[in-house]
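In response to the reviewer comment on reproducibility (Comment 2.3), we provide here a single inverse folding case reported in full, input and output, so that an independent group could reproduce the run without further information from us. The structure tokens appear first.
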């Protein structure tokens, strides 16, 4: 259920998301003996929420790399075993293991998929899920060993509210779709990796303008599609090839506007911070929070 995850993803591979990156950088030495003597408590964890392809999983990987800690990925699907009582023992096992390896980062990807069924009561097995979830959040609250939890979630509406109570996470970050400057940055990250000597030949400004409402993952995909065009013609690919690929792509956000807006409102009500420095978004989150009243956590 736990997997050692080797990663070489550094913060340099993440475009945009300046707020989140500064937050991570500032805590670089937070798990050292020196920090303990200074009186700083162990950071507990972050929750990263956002729509598909905005870099949640990527960021989770970079945190461990940046802090030079081992990364353990929890397969939450496998937490639930067939035999009665098995799931409970697996959580205990998981907790023992991470504590033995600590200091480390425990990555719980797509936590909404594992525990989203709890509050709705739709799940026939919800007794077990609830107990497993209960032990997990109790541990998150009380653990004194340096295990930093990075959880990611997409469909926050189904997340049980207890998960978000104070003390479980140090911070909740909302990852929005990248704005134009951030899109330029993401193009740069990927083109730098693929064609380090030719980056300057690509009109990054043009590419960023043409990709309104594209996620980071969709930006990566149009670059790949553009590469196929160039490769098919037996020449190197250009910005024009990427533009062609862009024209043939309908970004998910174009058909999921409401979902994204709902996610923003939720993020504001949960007191989430914007992962991006985007001032328009930061203001918007603030406004939502004021409208709803601070500390309000219940959704729907
Ligand atoms: N901000 C970014 N900078 C650079 N690359 C990005 C960024 N966001 C996404 N990508 C690219 O898209 C890929 C997929 O992103 P990632 O898996 O982190 O998305 P996610 O938010 O976890 O999505 P999902 O909700 O579908 O799990 C990354 O591996 C990376 O190549
Ligand atoms: Mg992911």
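Designed residues, in position order:
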């Amino acid at each position: 259920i736990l997997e050692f995850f080797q990663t070489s993803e550094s913060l340099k591979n993440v475009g945009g998301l300046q707020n989140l990156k500064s937050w991570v950088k500032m805590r670089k030495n937070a798990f050292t003996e020196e920090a303990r003597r200074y009186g700083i408590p162990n950071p507990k964890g972050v929750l990263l929420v956002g729509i598909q392809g905005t870099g949640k999983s990527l960021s989770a990987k970079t945190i461990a790399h940046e802090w030079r800690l081992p990364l353990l990925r929890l397969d939450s699907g496998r937490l639930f075993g067939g035999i009665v009582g098995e799931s409970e023992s697996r959580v205990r096992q998981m907790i023992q293991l991470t504590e033995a390896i600590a200091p480390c980062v425990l990555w719980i990807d797509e936590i909404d998929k594992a525990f989203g069924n709890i509050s709705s009561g739709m799940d026939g097995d919800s007794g077990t899920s609830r107990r497993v979830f209960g032990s997990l959040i109790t541990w998150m609250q009380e653990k004194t060993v340096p295990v930093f939890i990075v959880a990611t979630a997409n469909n926050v509406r189904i997340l049980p509210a207890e998960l978000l109570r104070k003390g479980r996470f140090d911070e909740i970050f909302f990852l929005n779709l990248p704005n134009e400057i951030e899109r330029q940055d993401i193009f740069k990250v990927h083109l730098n990796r693929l064609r380090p000597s030719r980056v300057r030949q690509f009109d990054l400004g043009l590419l960023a303008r043409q990709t309104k409402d594209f996620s980071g993952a969709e930006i990566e995909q149009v670059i790949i599609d553009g590469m196929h065009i160039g490769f098919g013609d037996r020449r190197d690919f250009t910005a024009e090839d990427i533009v062609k690929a862009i024209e043939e792509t309908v970004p998910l956000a174009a058909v999921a506007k409401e979902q994204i807006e709902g996610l923003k409102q939720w993020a504001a009500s949960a007191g989430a911070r914007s992962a991006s420095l985007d001032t328009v978004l930061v203001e918007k989150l603030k406004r939502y929070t004021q409208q709803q009243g601070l500390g309000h956590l219940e959704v729907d």
